[in-house]
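DM from R.C. (forwarded with permission)

"hey, sorry to bug you on a friday — could you get me a structure for this? deadline for the figure draft is monday and I only need the backbone to look sensible"
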Amino acid sequence: MSHPKFVVSISNLTKTYASGLHALKNANLEIKKGEIFSLLGPNGAGKTTLISIICGIVTPSAGTVLVDGHDILSDYRTARTKIGLVPQELTTDAFETVWATVSFSRGLFGYPPDPAFIEKLLRDLSLWDKRQSKIKELSGGMKRRVMIAKALSHQPEILFLDEPSAGVDVALRRDMWALVRKLRDSGVTIILTTHYIDEAEEMADRIGVIRKGEIILVEEKNALMKKLGKKQLTLNLTLPMTTIPPELSEWNLQLNTQGHELIYSFDTKTEHTGIPTLLRQLHDLGITFKDLNTRQSSLEDIFVNLVHEKKKD
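My reply, with the result:
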């Protein structure tokens, strides 16, 4: 069977809970095979609801979801075997060993035992030394690794990581990112929800932004950074200024740190930043500076602007 280009296709997905909460409103999204897709949004935006529907934990109110061409409702079993889910909550039987937990998880999906595969998985996740430890004896970070091992035990083609860095130390985040890249290289499609912008910036090929149950933007990460990226030119003035001279009013400049810095924000999309003209004008006005540097806006700035802009609508 030929694989569709989109490994997950979501159309007009809506979820309204009995309480009247509209958790998802007409969401449309297509996820490409073999990409790392990051769904970004503030807490309560609908990220977990979306993942829970795709994984068959929550029933949608309307709309369809296809996983590798299989409908999640009419062809639930096949769709579900293609998916591994690492939920936010660390839910495991505390009294089982790591080895038993991960092996049992594989069996749940109807896969025959494969000790060699489980061993490789535990080694990849730095869990091999802990294979006989009971879950309750492990640190939070180790438990998170066990959750990842459980999710991968049946060799899924799609891995969902729901807020994987919540409550995880920096070292584990780095390990996890390296593992995610390795999985992607082996052909697994990764879908990651996060509100840590640096995680999306570090990992994702494409980014979707979800707000109040609506997917407000889907874009390749690099294009998004470029399109929405602003740069700042900061001039460290030789003499502090109290106000910006009227001759410079059209430049949209800001003063900060007690008038020692003059900041000019410009768009990276435009061909002409106007910096040479600005510098000449400063020179003509007798304004001198000791140093200048530029800074590209991060995904964080972009995200904050996006969510603010949408609020105004």
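R.C.: lifesaver. The radius of gyration is 24 Å.
me: no worries. The chain has a mean pLDDT of 86.
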